[in-house]
Design a protein that fits this description.
mainly beta, 11 strands, 4-stranded antiparallel beta sheet, Immunoglobulin-like, 2 domains, 3-stranded antiparallel beta sheet
Length: 179
């Protein structure tokens, strides 16, 4: 681990639970775990108004372990935007179009019908996001920019803090006519 600076090393306190220890938390069986929180994570770390959004989410129990859950996404007017559910270890994704000036919240339920209302992070008025798709053995980079940002002399810079993996100029975006 000495190849990378200390600030790139992940740290987390772990709780060791002895399955034979009668003092261990036995108040709920693993199949009956209730979730305690739901967190939402926009792809690229943020999302921009007037763009398609991919947002990951994680439903955790009180120990930080993933639990199954499903939910619905609403806008600030209470209009249902989309439904979603976990796919693995309490994690899943949701896609939607972030309308200008809107805010969003989710009502998330688990199998015990406990519901948590969670506000999604706020969208930005301007900026850029990066999204990678892998298809047919190739990696495609999509980086939509909001209006008002320079559209030329852009390039991705992919690194892990110590090593540079890729950099190249992106071609100027070509407008797609709408019919």
């Amino acid at each position: 681990m000495t190849d990378y600076p200390a600030e790139y090393i992940f740290h987390k306190q772990l709780h060791i639970i002895n399955g034979n220890n009668q003092e261990a938390d036995n108040e709920e069986k693993i199949t009956e775990r209730q979730f305690a929180e739901v967190s939402f994570y926009p792809e690229s770390g943020r999302y921009i108004f007037d763009q398609l959004v991919t947002m990951a989410f994680k439903a955790n129990d009180k120990h930080g372990l993933g639990v199954e859950a499903n939910g619905e996404l609403y806008n600030s007017k209470g209009t249902l935007i989309s439904s979603f559910e976990t796919h693995h270890a309490g994690m899943g994704t949701i896609g939607f179009f972030a309308a200008k000036g809107e805010s969003y919240y989710a009502l998330v339920k688990n199998s015990k019908e406990k519901t948590i209302k969670t506000n999604l992070p706020k969208a930005s008025n301007s900026g850029a996001t990066i999204n990678l798709k892998r298809r047919d053995g190739k990696v495609y980079i999509n980086s939509p920019l909001s209006e008002g940002l320079p559209q030329n002399n852009l390039f991705p810079l992919m690194h892990n803090g110590s090593n540079l993996f890729y950099t190249d100029f992106l071609p100027k975006p070509v407008p797609i006519p709408c019919f």
